[in-house]
Structure formats: C-alpha cells, structure tokens
C-alpha cells in the first residue's frame, strides 16, 4: 500500500505538538491526523478510504489504532480510526506495530473486506498495484474463515463511456464519490442502496461525464473502477513508468506515463503538490493516442510535380534548403503552441540567426497587436517567483477571471480554485456572458459581460492587494482588455497572470517566438538586448526591425511579399480565419512543414519533415506560472527520432549557418545561459505590424461569445472515442430575451449566420442568465469550428430558426 | 417513597380527544410556557440540569448539560431537532405518546427551543406511522392557531417555527448524526464527530438533538420544579420514565414509573409471564442492549443498575421471552434486522452483519461446525467497538450476551436445528398449523 | 454453451426501474414539490418529503420523479437516486392500492409474525416486495414498527393493525379487497397507500381526529395506577 505524505502540506504550519507513536516521540503540526503522524516516524498504517486530499471519512475502519492516552492521562476505550483522529498534545498512539489490539482490529477488518471480495485478481487490472491485494498478501490469513455466499453483481457496468465499474470488487471507501463531490464538483456518481447492498451508482440517463473522471480510477484502492481504454491492456508489473509533464494545456500537470512494447498504455496524474497535487483532467490522462493513426508522418515528404512523395532525409533537406535559400529573409515562421521550450528555442534562433527575420509567431489562434505588446512588456522575462502560482490562488482573498473559463481552458487551475473556494473561502469573480458549469462549481460571482465588453466590465470590479487577476488568452481579441488589466491591477496593487491555453505558449513567449521578442524577454527593438543575444549566439547582427505577427505573416505570404514559410504543428481552423491560412499556405512560394501527423499544412507544404511525438522526446514546458515542467522520453525506439530542433539544426547546417544547438540538452543549456533580460523592461515601441482587434458590432445582429471546451474537436483527442463520448454536447446559448427577439425556442435548433454568409446549426439552449444580445457557441466543436467561418468573439451574426440559413 | 407507578406523561392518554389542544389545555397544558418565558433561557437550562433529567433516547446523557453545550457566540442559527425515529426493536414509547398527546411534545419543544435560543425546531418522525404523523402535524397547526407557535409567542417576543418531517424507513436515522444528514435530504449515514452537533449540526449550525420523551418531560419539570422531578427515581437516574413491556407477558403495555423500578415489579403488574410459561430471557432497553435472564429480575431498571449487570438501560423496552423461544432464532432475527438496517458506510458493520447472518443461520439450521461458537464470538469481537457508529455494537451485543447466557443452545446448533428444540409454533400467541414453516 | 453462465445475486440493484418511464407528474406536482422545498431553511431538506409526494403521484419512485426532484433542488439525479434507494419506504416498482406490512422482527416473529406472513403470502399469492396482478395489494416484511406491546403487528398503508391473528389478517384482506371500510386499530379508516404517501409528504388529509387516543396496552399502566391510587408526588411534597 502506498503511503502518501504531502510534503509541505502539514509542515508549513508553525504550531507543533508532541505525540508518541509506538513509543517514538514526534513533533507534529497541530491538527495532524494520527495516520500522518505515524507516517512521519515511518510507520505505515494500512488504509483504504483515507486520502490526504479528500475530507476524512473514517469509513473502511482499516486504520484502527489503540490510544492508551489521549494526552490527558486517560485512554480511549475503543480502537480509533487513525485517519480521522487528530493528534492532541501528549497523545500516545499504538499502531499494529506495538499493539495487539490494533493488530487484531486491522486483521479483522481485512478479513471483512475480503468476505465479499471476488478472487479475480488474475484478471483484474489492479492486480499487482492493488492496496487490497498487497494487504491481503502481507497481513491476511492464508485461508478464509468465510464459507458463505459472496455478493455478486452483473459486471462491469459503465458509469460513463470511459469508466467501468465492477461493483463486487468495490470496498466502498467512497474515494470516488468524495472526489466527484469535493474535488471536481461533479456528483454524477453517488453511493446508492444501503447496507450490504450499498454500491457506487449513477443515474441511468446521466453518465459520469466529468472532465476529471479518470482520477477516480486512479484513486480507487481496488480494481472496481477501470478505464475502457486501458482495461486488459497490460499488467502493472509489465509496465515501465516515466515521469513527465502534460502537453495538453498550460497547466503543467505532472504525469506518470506507463508504457510497454514501445507503446504508451496509460497515463496517470503525477504527484506535484505545487501544481496539480495528485489530479489531472481526462484529456491529459486519456488523450495520448492521436499519433497512432494512419496519418502519422514517419518519413520526409517532398513535393514533386505537385505531388508529395516520400523522400530520403538528404533529399528533403536539400529541397528545403533550396527553397529557403531562395527566399532569404523573406520568410515567416509559424511555430504553433505545442512545442517544448527547447524546440521553440530552436525556431526562435533559426528565424533570427539562420533566416535573418523576426517574422515569427507561436500564436496559431486569434491574436492581436495589443496582445503582442502585452506579452512583450508584461509576460516575457518573468520567472516563477515573479508571477502568480497555484499556491497563491489558495492564499488570495479574491480571484478575478477575465476571458478565462478555467474548467474548460485550464483544468488544473479550476481544481485549485475549487479547493481555494471550498477550503479557504476564496471568492471568485468572473467576467463572463453567463454562469458556466465551472463558474457555478466555483460559486463564482458572475459579472455579466458581453463579448468584447471585458475592459468596461473590469472597471466596475473592485481590486485590492489581496486580489489576483487571471486573464486568459482570449483577451487578445477583446479591445483594451489586456491594457485595462495591467492598469487596473497596477493601481490597486493586485497581481495578475496571463493564462494561455497551450502547453507550449508560455515557453514560446520566453524563447522569443514573437515578432517583437528575442529569448529571455529581450525586446527586438532594444539594441542592447539584440547585442546581448547576438554575442551569445556568435552572430554579427540580428534583424533589428520587429517582424510580422502570424496574421501579418499569413497575409504577406498570400500576397507574395514573403516567399517562404516554416511551419510547426498547427491547424488552420484554430486561427481567426482558416481560409486565410489555407490561402496563404497555397499562395506561399515555399512551405516547409515540421509535423508528426499529416495535416492541412502538410497537404499544402513543399517539404514535410516528420517530428517526434511528445512521448518520443524530452524537453520542458513552462506552465502559466512560468514554472518549468520536465518532459521525459518515454518511448526510446521511436518511429521518428527527429525533434523539431534536430530538423532545424540539420537545415541550418545545410544552409551553412550552424544553429549551434541540436540536442535538447544543448538548447536548454544555451537558453539557460542566456538567462532573462536584466536590463530595463521593454516598453511598447511603435505599433507592431499585424492584426488589430476587430471592431465590435459591425452589423446589426447578435454578438458571438465563445471559448474552447476542454474536450472538443481538437486533433489531440483523435483516436480516443471513449473520451470523446464524455464531452459536453455542443449547443448555442442565448438569453430568453435574445431567443424571443430572434424567434427561437429552447430545445430547438438555431442557425448562426455570419456576416460573410457562412452558417452552421446547433441545438439551442435558452439560459436565464445569459447576457442579452449575444449568442454563446463553442469555439471548436467537432465539425463546427469558428475558424472555418472566420468568426471571432464579439463579431456579429444573425440567428435563424434551426435549419433555415 | 414514591408510588410504584407515576403517570405524568401518560396521565392524559385516556382522556377524550387527548390529542386535541382543547383537551390538552383543559388538563393544564401549555401552562408551562409562561412560567418558562418568565425565566431567562439559561435559567430554564439550569432547571432541567438541576432536575437531573437524562436523555430518554438510549444513551442517558444529561439533557440540561447537552443544552448548555450550545455555543452562545456562534453567529449561526440554533436548531432543536426532536428524535422521533423510534425504531429500536422493542421500543414503543414515543409513538404512543405522540399519538395520544402530541401537544406534550410541542410544549416541551417550545420551552427547549427557548432555552437554547432556537427559532426553527424540527421533529424527525419515522415515516411508517401515518396516524402519528397526522396527529403531530395537527397539533403543530393547532399550536400555531392558539398562539403558542409563530411570532412573539405569548407576548414574550420569542418566535418559533416547528417543522414536522417524516422519514422514509431507516433505523439508522435514529442515530443523531445520521438523522441530521437525512434531515438535510441526504442518505442517512452517520457523520464524523467531532464536530459534535452542538457545535456544527444541522446545516453546520449548533444543534440539540433530543429524544421525544426527553423533551416531553420538560413541561412537567417547568411546572412542578426540579426537586419534584428528582424526588422520583434513584440517585443518578432521576425522575419518572416510560417502560414498555412486550412479549410473553399476560398483559403487555406501557408503565410510567420512577427510574429504578424492577422487572419483577412490572411483571407483577402486567400479570406475569403468560399462563403456563416461565421467563427465559429479556432485553432491558431494546435489542441493542445485552439480554438478561431470570437472574436479573430484581436489578433496578436504571442506568447504573443495568450497567452493573453488563447491560444497558437503553430505551427501557422490556421485551420478555418465555421458555418456548429459541435464543438462536431470536438472535438471528435481530442480527437480520441490523444487517437490513446497516447503513453500509463502515466495513465491520456492513460485512460483519452479512457474515453473522449466514453463520447464525447455520446455527439455526443445526449445521454449524463444531467450534463455530468461538468463531461467532471472534467475529463479534472484530465488529464490536470497531465500527463507525453504535449500530454495529448493538448488533453484536445481542449475540455475545445470548452466547454468554445460553451457550449450550448455540452448541446444539452443531447438530440440531433450533426448530426441533423449540418448535416455533409454540411461541406464537395463536395456534400455528402443523406444516407451517413459520 | 459453457454452462457457467454468470449469476448475480443483485442484478436489479442500484437504480430505479428504468424500464417503466410512465409518470403522472404534471405542473401541479412540480408546484407542490417546490412548495415542499420552500418549507425548509435549505431546500434540499425537503427531498424525503418530495420523494413521498412522487410516490403518491406515480405509485413508486419513478424516473420522472427523480428527475423532477433533482431539477427542483438543483442537485444531480445520482444524488437523488442515492437517497431514493437508501430508504425502504421508497418503492422502485408500483405498490398496490393497499400496501400490507407484516412485522417479522424478532419479537413479532416469535409471537406469530412469521406465521402471519406465511398466511398473508398464501392468501395474496405473492411474496414480500411483490404486488398482486390486479394491483390491489403489495406486501412487505417490515421491521419493528414501534408497536411491540401490540404484537404481532401488521400495517396497512402504514396504519396500525394491532394484535393480529391469521383469522383477523384474512378478514382484513377480504374487507380491503371488497372495498369495505376498514379502520385501523389505532388510526383512521384505511384510504390507500398513495393517499398515505401524500400525507407523509406533508399534505394533510384532515383525518387526525379519527381513531382512539391510545390502544389498551398503552393505557395499561395508567389504568393500574388509577385503580391503585398511584400517582407522581405532588410538587409541594417535594419542595426542598
Ligand atoms: C443505531 C442508533 C439508533 C438510534 N435510534 C434512536 C431513536 O430511534 N430515537 C432516539 O431518540 N434516539 C435514538 N438513538 C440515540 C440518538 O443517537 C441520540 O443519542 C438521542 O436521540 C439523543 O436524545 P436524548 O439525549 O434525549 O436521549 C439511536 C442511536 C443509535 C446508535
Ligand atoms: S456501524 Fe457503520 S455501517 Fe453500521 S450503521 Fe453505523 S456507520 Fe453505518
Ligand atoms: S483509512 Fe481510516 S477508516 Fe478508512
């Protein structure tokens, strides 16, 4: 049985008391539970229901100890559950180690748990890592005294498309139901029936569709909850585990990745008390098979006579170099937001030192010049200590969310905020068009805010030194919002943090995947900063003019101003206008694509280089806190041993300018040596080229409010059908007044018509608290991606009765 | 010396329309209110403390002391919850009291609520007693109409609402913390203590939970004084209480007597064991209290007396069984009750009661294996004192006490079915036809 | 065929009966559910009464009833289902017009409860937790109903039927089947299980005044005391 002590959790407190456990005196923080005090002296008391991150329940009774002295000279007449017993000064506790009473109580409890437990360890997923099995082996009787009938249920029953339940294996510790209620706030599973028939259940029509459902599989101390995707895939003892960091969002959750036969079999939440504690979201847990499909790029491709053909690496490199040489510095680099810091650093350096351009942008999503300024002046060059941390969220008085729906866009932040709300009464205020599911679970005060009205709404929110503001990447397209956050926070002494969505975003800012930034927060327009970088890189000069941002790069490529594009992993539909991206890729003179899967970019590329999947290489992700998270190589016999960095280094070599780094370690070392800029913080300089926020209300109609849902049409979820089934259905949401105005009715369908004449249809949900005059739609629902329609938050659309465009 | 029987709570049960406010008031009902309002809340609590009233729900905790635990500085509302779940096998005192004189409880609740500063009080009554629910709701309505409830009661400036809440079938909801969860609309499973209800009970607010009889006793104390009350009973078990005599006695029924009366005395009043039979075993306070035998007829039926002979006073539910009754059969049936009523939260109770039932069935069927009595006791030992709440302790108390007093009868279960030793039909009050399986 | 088909002991446990989704719940019911919720300082407290009301309308805890309760209280259907399956008074299959309970907890059982149950089962042709084909009766083995001094005890729609014998039980069932007026020994004239559930939910039926104050056994002590002139001391005698 694993013993889990939370370093830091208890030690942070100052008041300590002395207790004696099995004769060993130990100082423990006040309020420490006996079971954890025992851990501190190295005594593992067996347990099932206890979980340090869940409220104590004392249900399984496995952890009974004897208390000969409560600290007042008197003993407790009965054995006590050590997982619910708070240490008192002078208390004496005797565990199974020294107390025959405790030992017998624990043996008796184990026997009871086995009375109705099936003997199916050989076919149980948990066999080999099962606390009950371990207990039975180490402390159980060789033979059972129970001769009766065992309780059996039909097995297994799905509690969701992703989670299966074998009820007869369940020890009713209620960890899963407590998790769902206390931690994620999704009590779609509950204990049902009573007595010997008690079991975990869901309501027939309502599966356990929680974004966090996988955690219950992980904390189940037996094999009662298993995952559809992992069931019968492997024995725990045949798996090799690797610690890593999740690549799906900017949360930075620690992961444990288990593989066998050169294939990842499952991913578990890793334990990082500072970040994700011991939880993760289902996307991080289950979405890891997207690279296994037929569309995996395993060999370089070169376009010959208009057709992409498999080529050798030298051929492909030659072809790419020819195209890039011809373009010279008339090139643009689009990196996408999914790169490790080291890979992104490679692009940043490649653009400047090899191509000689500042035309580089990681933002494969709606962005703005305002945001460029914000990232340049307020985000880049900050380290962990300079920003807001997960722990800060718990310590704050109030957290204000601007353009951020944590449950959808930053799941680990959501969990930590929920803990902050539950345990520390932190108040959450959100500027949002309606109270989302996540807002409700955070008991958030919603400041009803139409899309694009965030800056104005923020003016009415009270901030002070105990307030934290989390501003999401969507603020980029809400005019004035980022500036308002900065101004308002500064004047109130409040701290703020930028929360991007993708795992590579924060690192990309830091390494300078922006037209205005060099690595370490050095501004392109700052000559001293340029000299600093040029010296470190051993190049004479660096391009001094700020480059084009993504939108600028794309239009320049389309118009022929730019002759070549180097493109990392990105999807056209994630941009403000997918069509613009496609047009640009098609019109661009020359396109080099670095990809692991065939995509709309590879389709239009001249040369395609295969790059490694996340599990095939090492690196670092900086999360939203600016905290580095280590990515380790899981699969060593990779189909594609090349990383983006190696490809770029090879291209650089072939072009005659060494990149100077070709391995992850080299890139990491060089980037670290470069360090953050210590000179003056960049101030906005001139007007960066590129996209301006669009004006709201271009035509009469309804404004679009939107954000991405955690489980959506993103390609990273491909291949995991069970996970996709647990996603929220896509709906369009309007207020009753809006519905009335547009002649729509709840339960029906609505057709959203854009100014450009595009349209799509979604089921309609009329929500009382939705702001008037707006319609909320998901950004990237499967099959309905706003990028395809060129629609941004704040744009106006017409709403028609479903099916009628 | 007080009289053998001292009807106070039951004094009006026989009057015409005793449940009606008219009859109740005519008998002096609601007279205690003004007397109580003339005192400070603390004085009322002190009075109840002085009287020595101990909880009548089973545990015997001093009622006044319980009230005084309610923190005065807690900003949350205070709640009084009356436990009318009466489901302990053998226990049948609160239900007749509520059927015959619901106003006694209502009056008591007003005084108790006043004492603890409560403005919303609840009665949690088991659901399976329809007519009692009717009478109680009716009484509350009448009390509102008469100005005993609602705003500014009797011009005292004190406000109180009473909510009558019917349960839905779960013995465990008599356990006070399970009751609170149930009253909050949840599964009735016991809560972790601490925090104790007095600090964080209903809606996490300070809450006093008392048995029906405990609260119904309060008006008489207020009217007659604490020394009147403490003049009855024994040194540490004060006052009068209701004893319920059931089973193989000539005339079963309710007897209100000072604490400390003996079963022998009560048996005499009820005409003794039914004709032609002798006492075999009995429970002093429901099936959760260890059984006793003819040896214990003269032990005072008070908290100390019963503790002295290894049992408990419990709910004073005296279930009497004669020599026709198989202890094994009875014990099995009780354990089946606990298995049925186990809430399922904790392992020893849930799994242990499941196991015990199967094992005891083997004893009943005469197919237990030699040595199984010790196994039975060992399983009981692994349950008793290890569970989350006291339900499981009750479940094993009947087994261990039955084995203590009747071990040979269990050992007979190694070879002979209980039914053969004690033909079941003979225990029934009516002729049971040959061939019946019952 | 393997011949080792998996057999479960509790195949139907865990959920309400989803095979039958019929319901009579309408706007009036929803309004009454809301009314119940409004009676408490916190609405969820009303869940038990609300489920009683659902039973009075649908004859069981219906899927629609669970959903309505969840909706009114803003909790999940799993939470409601967890509550509905915890308490024995909530039925997953339709109860009969009259719901008959026979107490078979230890004391009633030995005093004749077991024999009574056997007789009633035979008479109705159903076992515990079953309902007669015509929907008139359902049967339940009940646990101690706080009437031990009237053992053996039966209940009809949760009204007391004290001091039962097999003959009385047969007559009781015949009379109910014939639609005759049947009075509880300590209660009102029997109506129906659904009407009883409505009263339990908190909507009175005005029958509180029916029936006696107490049964004979309840009055035994008091009548002996009266006969003997016994009473509690007078306050003035006990004043310090
Ligand atoms: C399993 C169990 C069932 C109980 N049932 C009842 C009951 O039905 N009625 C009751 O008043 N107390 C019952 N109790 C006792 C209560 O928990 C609590 O002690 C009592 O209501 C307090 O009231 P009192 O102090 O007035 O006695 C039960 C306790 C347990 C452990
Ligand atoms: S002893 Fe445990 S299972 Fe039994 S009723 Fe109490 S808490 Fe529930
Ligand atoms: S671990 Fe302590 S009771 Fe379960």
Strand content of chain A: 15-25%
Topology, number of strands of chain B: 9
- The main sheet of chain B orders its strands as 6-5-9-7-8
Radius of gyration of chain B: 22 Å
Share of helix of chain B, binned: 40-55%
Mean pLDDT of chain A: 94
Helix content of chain A: 25-40%
What sequence of helices (H) and strands (E) makes up the elements of chain B? HHHHEHHEHEHHEHHEEHEEHEHHHHH
| Major sheet characteristics of chain A | 7 strands, mixed
Strand content of chain B: 5-15%
Shape call of chain B: globular
Sheet with the most strands of chain B? Answer: 5 strands, mixed
What's the alpha carbon Rg of chain A, rounded to whole Å? 28 Å
Most extensive protein-chain contact, per-chain counts? B-C, 107 and 92 residues
Calculate the terminal CA-CA distance of chain A, rounded to whole Å: 60 Å
Termini separation of chain B (Å)?
47 Å
* Structural category of chain A: alpha/beta
Number of helices of chain A: 25
What's the SSE blueprint?
The complex is a heterotrimer of chains A (805), B (438) and C (240).
Chain A: E1 16-21, E2 24-29, H1 34-40, E3 64-69, E4 80-81, E5 92-94, H2 100-115, H3 131-139, E6 157-158, E7 163-165, H4 175-183, E8 189-192, E9 199-202, H5 214-219, E10 225-227, E11 240-245, E12 254-260, E13 263-269, H6 282-286, E14 301-304, E15 307-310, H7 313-327, E16 331-334, H8 341-355, E17 360-361, H9 369-379, H10 390-395, E18 398-402, H11 406-409, H12 411-424, E19 427-432, H13 437-441, E20 445-448, H14 454-459, E21 467-472, H15 481-492, E22 495-499, H16 505-511, E23 517-518, E24 522-523, H17 527-537, H18 550-559, E25 564-567, H19 578-587, E26 590-595, H20 600-604, E27 607-610, E28 619-622, E29 628-631, H21 644-655, H22 664-674, E30 702-707, H23 721-725, E31 732-734, H24 736-742, E32 749-754, E33 759-766, E34 774-778, E35 780-781, E36 784-785, H25 786-789, E37 796-801
Helix pairs in contact in A: 2-3, 7-21, 8-16, 8-21, 8-22, 18-19
Chain B: H1 21-26, H2 31-37, H3 41-51, H4 63-68, E1 78-84, H5 94-100, H6 102-116, E2 118-125, H7 130-145, E3 161-166, H8 176-183, H9 197-200, E4 207-211, H10 212-224, H11 226-230, E5 240-247, E6 253-258, H12 263-269, E7 279-283, E8 292-293, H13 303-308, E9 317-322, H14 327-341, H15 347-364, H16 372-383, H17 391-411, H18 418-421
Parallel strand pairs in B: 1-2, 1-4, 2-3, 5-9
Antiparallel strand pairs in B: 5-6, 7-8, 7-9
Helix pairs in contact in B: 2-6, 2-10, 3-6, 5-6, 5-7, 6-10, 14-15, 14-17, 15-16, 15-17, 16-17
Chain C: H1 27-38, H2 47-58, H3 63-73, H4 77-84, E1 98-103, H5 106-124, E2 137-142, E3 154-156, E4 159-161, H6 166-177, H7 193-201, H8 216-228, H9 235-238
Helix pairs in contact in C: 1-2, 1-3, 2-3, 2-7, 3-4, 5-6
Flavin mononucleotide binds at residues 55-59, 61, 63, 83, 85-88, 172, 174-176, 209-211, 214, 389-391 of chain B.
């Amino acid at each position: 049985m694993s013993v889990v002590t939370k370093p830091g959790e208890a030690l942070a407190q100052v008041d300590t008391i002395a207790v004696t456990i099995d004769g060993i005196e130990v100082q423990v923080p006040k309020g420490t539970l006996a079971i954890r005090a025992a851990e501190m002296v190295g005594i593992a008391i067996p347990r099932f229901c206890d979980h340090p991150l869940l409220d104590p329940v004392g249900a399984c009774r496995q952890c009974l100890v004897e208390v000969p002295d409560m600290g007042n000279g008197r003993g407790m007449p009965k054995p006590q559950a050590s997982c619910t017993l708070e240490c008192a000064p002078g208390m004496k506790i005797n565990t199974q180690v020294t107390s025959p009473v405790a030992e017998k109580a624990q043996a008796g409890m184990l026997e009871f748990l086995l009375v109705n437990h099936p003997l199916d360890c050989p076919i149980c997923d948990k066999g080999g890592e099962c606390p009950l099995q371990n207990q039975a082996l180490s402390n159980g009787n060789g033979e059972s005294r129970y001769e009766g009938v065992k309780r059996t249920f039909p097995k297994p029953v799905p509690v969701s498309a992703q989670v299966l339940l074998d009820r007869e294996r369940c020890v009713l510790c209620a960890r899963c139901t407590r998790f769902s209620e206390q931690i994620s706030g999704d009590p779609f599973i509950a204990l049902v029936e009573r007595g010997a028939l008690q079991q975990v259940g869901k309501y027939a029509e309502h599966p356990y569709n929680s974004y966090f459902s996988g955690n219950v599989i992980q904390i189940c101390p037996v094999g009662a909850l298993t995952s559809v995707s992992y069931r019968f895939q492997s024995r725990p003892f045949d798996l090799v585990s690797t610690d890593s960091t999740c690549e799906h969002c900017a949360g930075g959750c620690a992961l444990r990745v288990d593989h066998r036969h050169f294939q990842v079999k499952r991913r578990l939440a890793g334990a990082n008390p500072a970040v994700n504690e011991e939880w993760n979201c289902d996307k991080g847990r289950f979405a890891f098979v997207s690279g296994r499909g037929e569309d995996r790029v395993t060999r370089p491709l070169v376009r010959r006579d208009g057709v992409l053909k498999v080529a050798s690496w030298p051929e492909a490199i030659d072809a790419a170099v020819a195209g890039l040489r011809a373009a010279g510095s008339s090139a643009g680099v689009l990196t996408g937001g999914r790169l490790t810091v080291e890979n992104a650093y490679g692009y940043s350096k490649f653009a400047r030192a090899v191509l000689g351009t500042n035309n580089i942008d990681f933002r494969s999503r709606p962005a703005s010049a305002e945001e460029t300024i914000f990232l340049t002046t307020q985000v880049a060059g900050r380290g962990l200590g300079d920003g807001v941390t997960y722990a800060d969220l718990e310590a704050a008085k109030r957290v204000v969310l601007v353009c951020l729906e944590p449950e959808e866009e930053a799941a680990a932040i959501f969990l930590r905020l929920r803990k902050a709300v539950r345990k520390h009464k932190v108040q959450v205020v959100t500027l949002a068009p309606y109270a989302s599911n996540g807002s409700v679970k955070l008991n958030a005060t919603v400041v009803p805010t139409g899309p694009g009205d965030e800056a104005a709404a923020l003016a009415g929110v009270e901030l002070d030194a105990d307030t934290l503001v989390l501003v999401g990447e969507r603020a980029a397209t809400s005019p004035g919002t980022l500036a308002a956050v900065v101004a308002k926070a500064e004047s109130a002494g409040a701290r703020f943090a930028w929360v991007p969505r993708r795992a590579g975003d924060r690192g990309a800012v830091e390494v300078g995947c922006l037209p205005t930034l060099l690595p370490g927060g050095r501004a392109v327009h700052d000559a001293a900063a340029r000299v600093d970088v040029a010296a470190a890189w051993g190049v004479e000069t660096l391009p001094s003019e700020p480059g084009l941002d993504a939108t600028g790069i794309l239009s320049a490529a389309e118009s022929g101003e730019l002759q070549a594009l180097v493109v990392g992993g990105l999807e056209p539909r994630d941009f403000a206008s997918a069509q613009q991206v496609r047009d640009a890729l098609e019109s661009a003179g020359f396109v080099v694509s670095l990809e692991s899967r065939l995509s709309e970019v590879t389709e239009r590329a001249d040369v395609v280089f295969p790059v490694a999947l996340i599990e095939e290489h090492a690196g670092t992700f900086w999360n939203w806190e600016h905290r580095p998270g280590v990515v380790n190589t899981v699969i060593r016999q990779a189909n594609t041993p090349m990383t983006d960095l190696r490809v770029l280094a090879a291209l650089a070599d072939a072009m005659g300018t060494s990149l100077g780094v070709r391995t992850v370690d080299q890139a990491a070392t060089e980037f670290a040596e470069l360090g953050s800029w210590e000179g003056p913080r960049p101030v906005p300089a001139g007007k960066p080229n590129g996209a301006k926020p669009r004006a709201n209300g271009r035509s009469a109609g309804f404004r679009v409010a939107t954000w991405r849902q955690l489980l959506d049409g993103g390609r990273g979820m491909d291949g995991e059908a069970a996970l996709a089934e647990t996603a929220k259905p896509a709906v369009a949401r309007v207020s009753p007044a809006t519905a009335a105005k547009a002649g729509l009715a709840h339960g029906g369908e609505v057709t959203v018509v854009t100014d450009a004449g595009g349209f799509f249809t979604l089921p309609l949900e009329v929500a009382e608290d939705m702001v008037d005059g707006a319609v909320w739609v998901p950004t990237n629902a499967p099959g309905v991606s706003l990028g395809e329609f060129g629609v941004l938050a704040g744009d106006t659309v017409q709403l028609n009765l479903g099916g009628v465009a | 010396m007080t009289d053998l029987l001292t009807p106070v709570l039951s004094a009006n049960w026989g009057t015409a329309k005793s449940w009606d406010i008219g009859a109740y008031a005519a008998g002096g009902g609601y007279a205690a209110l003004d007397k109580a309002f003339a005192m400070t809340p603390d004085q009322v609590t002190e009075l109840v403390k002085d009287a020595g009233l101990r909880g009548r729900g089973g545990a015997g905790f001093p009622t006044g002391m319980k009230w005084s635990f309610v923190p005065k500085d807690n900003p949350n509302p205070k709640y009084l919850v009356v436990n009318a779940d009466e489901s302990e096998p053998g226990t049948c005192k609160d239900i007749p009291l509520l059927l015959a004189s619901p106003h006694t409880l209502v009056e008591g609740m007003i005084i108790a609520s006043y004492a603890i500063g409560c403005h919303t009080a609840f009665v949690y009554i088991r659901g399976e007693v329809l007519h009692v629910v009717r009478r109680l709701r009716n009484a509350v309505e009448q009390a509102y109409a008469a100005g005993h409830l609602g705003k500014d009661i009797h011009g005292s400036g004190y406000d109180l609402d009473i909510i009558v809440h019917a349960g839905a079938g779960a013995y465990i909801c008599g356990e006070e913390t399970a009751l609170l969860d149930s009253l909050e609309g949840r599964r009735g499973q016991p809560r972790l203590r601490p925090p104790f209800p007095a600090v964080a009970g209903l809606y996490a607010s300070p809450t006093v939970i008392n048995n029906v009889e405990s609260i119904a006793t309060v008006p008489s104390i207020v009217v007659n004084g604490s020394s009147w009350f403490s003049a009855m009973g024994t040194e540490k078990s004060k006052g009068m209480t209701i004893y319920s005599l059931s089973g193989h006695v000539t005339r079963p029924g309710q007897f209100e007597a000072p604490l400390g009366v003996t079963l022998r005395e009560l048996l005499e009043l009820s005409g003794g064991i039914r004709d032609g039979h002798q006492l075999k075993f009995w429970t002093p306070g429901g099936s959760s209290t260890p059984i006793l035998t003819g040896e214990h007829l003269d032990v005072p039926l008070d908290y100390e007396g019963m503790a002295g002979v290894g049992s408990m006073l419990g709910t004073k539910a005296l279930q009497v069984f004669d020599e026709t009754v198989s202890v094994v059969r009875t014990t099995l049936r009780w354990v089946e009750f606990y298995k049925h009523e186990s809430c399922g939260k904790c392992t020893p109770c849930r799994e242990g009661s499941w196991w015990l039932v199967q094992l005891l069935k083997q004893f009943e069927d005469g197919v237990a294996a030699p040595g199984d009595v010790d196994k039975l006791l060992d399983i009981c030992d692994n349950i008793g004192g290890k569970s989350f709440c006291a339900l499981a302790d009750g479940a094993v108390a009947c087994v261990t006490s039955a084995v203590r007093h009747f071990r040979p009868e269990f050992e007979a279960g190694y070879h002979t079915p209980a039914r053969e030793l004690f033909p079941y039909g003979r225990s029934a009050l009516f002729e049971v036809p040959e061939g019946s399986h019952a | 065929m393997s011949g080792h088909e998996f057999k479960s002991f509790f195949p139907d446990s865990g959920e309400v009966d989803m095979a039958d989704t019929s319901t009579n719940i309408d706007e009036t019911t929803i309004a009454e559910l809301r009314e119940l919720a409004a009676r408490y300082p916190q609405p969820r407290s009303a869940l038990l009464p609300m489920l009683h009301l659902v039973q009075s309308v649908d004859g069981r805890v219906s899927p629609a009833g669970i959903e309505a309760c969840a909706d009114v209280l803003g909790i999940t259907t799993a939470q409601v289902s967890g509550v509905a399956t915890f308490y024995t008074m909530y039925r997953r299959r339709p109860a009969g017009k009259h719901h008959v309970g026979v107490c078979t907890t230890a004391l009633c059982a030995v005093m004749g409860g077991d024999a009574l149950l056997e007789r009633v089962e035979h008479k109705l042709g159903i076992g515990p937790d079953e309902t007669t084909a015509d929907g008139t009766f359902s049967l339940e083995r009940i646990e101690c109903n706080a009437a031990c001094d009237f053992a053996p005890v039966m209940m009809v729609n949760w009204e007391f039927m004290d001091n039962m014998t097999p003959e009385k039980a047969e007559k009781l069932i015949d009379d109910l089947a014939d639609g005759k007026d049947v009075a509880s020994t300590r209660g009102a004239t029997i109506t129906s299980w659904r009407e009883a559930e409505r009263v339990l939910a908190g909507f009175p039926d005005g029958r509180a005044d029916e029936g006696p104050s107490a049964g004979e056994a309840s009055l035994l002590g008091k009548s002996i005391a009266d006969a003997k002139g016994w009473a509690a001391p007078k306050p003035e005698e006990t004043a310090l």
